[in-house]
Amino acid sequence: MKIKRKIKTYNLNFGPQHPSAHGVLRLVLELNGERILDLAPHIGLLHRGTEKLIEYKNFLQALPYFDRLDYVSMLCQEHMFVLSGEKNIDTDVPLRAQFIRVLFSELTRILNHLMAITTHALDVGALTPFLWAFEEREKLLCINEYLCGARMHAAYFRLGGVQDDLPIGILDMIYNFLNSFGFRLDEIEELLTRNKIWKIRLINTGVISQKTAINAGVSGVLLRATGVNWDLRKNYPYEVYDSLKFNIPISKQGDSYSRYLLRMQEMRESIKIAFQCLNALPDGEVKIDNPAISPVSKFSMLDSMENTIQRFKYYSENVYFPEVQSYTAIEAPKGENGVFLWTDGFKLQRCAIRAPGYFHLQAGKFLAKYGLLADLVTILGSLDIVFGEIDR
Q1: Per-residue pLDDT reduced to its tens digit, 100-116
Q2: In what order do the strands lie in the sheet with 335-345?
């Protein structure tokens, strides 16, 4: 007589204070032994109502909120917002300002990927790459501080350009960083790329198919790791990206190891883009010559009363927008980062943000299902999630 055995599953809470959750994430796991049968992400523990707060501000007041969304990719968040505002008022940006924006967006991409790769390695048990990468991140944050006085939350991009021209000596600082950074990437790859433990933990872990990735709305590295050649800098170029030469790395494996390799290659492509920006940086103005959009920024006792009034109105009321609804997206380090803006007057009527991490976290259900509990941390690290943009 055969005895029927009933398999009993049980639920387990992962987080929200788990050191490898990459933020205040709570996952409710249904387990059969060590095998994950189901995964339900619970978010909102960091929620501040950012989008609703923005709707009570003018454009300039709303800008610093974007630094605090994906707080590892600060200037890229600003880039998305100012491009959206410029679309609504249909204004052009001086060429020098466009090159400066692209230059610092690519340096921010490096800043993001250094954090993503080495905290991922730390989750798996490799400490040294983390220490090396944070030395390089420190150099980039010092460049940010020299640029605008803030290491992280820069609030440097503006409607019609950037806040101020580049300070003397910063181009030399950037050149010296780029010149040596490739060698540091080589050192990190020596430790990780062919490391037996790293490969065992990542290869064929967290696999997602191309069809599932497209249906789940994932973008960036996660999408390109499934073989989709999609990058907004190439497919829908903005600023001066169409005049720059760079490649879009893709893979077809769709696993955690592919995502690691693509981020390493993307940093090398960002070096190439940044060098081109340094070489092609033109002279000229860094903000549009329109007093209603960008008034005189330097205060002087000899200023006219008109300049004083203009500056006062700029910082109190800011820019008047026509009634326009638009969606603008950029290729942020984590994927397609977009913002829907409805403008009408001095205040923003509606603001809705498309954060790539939100979609990637939802895709985690497909990535981790039927995998082992020990692989969950590896999968989460490969997603490169930051809860500032997910919870909002």
Answers
A1: 999 999 999 999 999 99
A2: 321-332, 335-345, 348-354
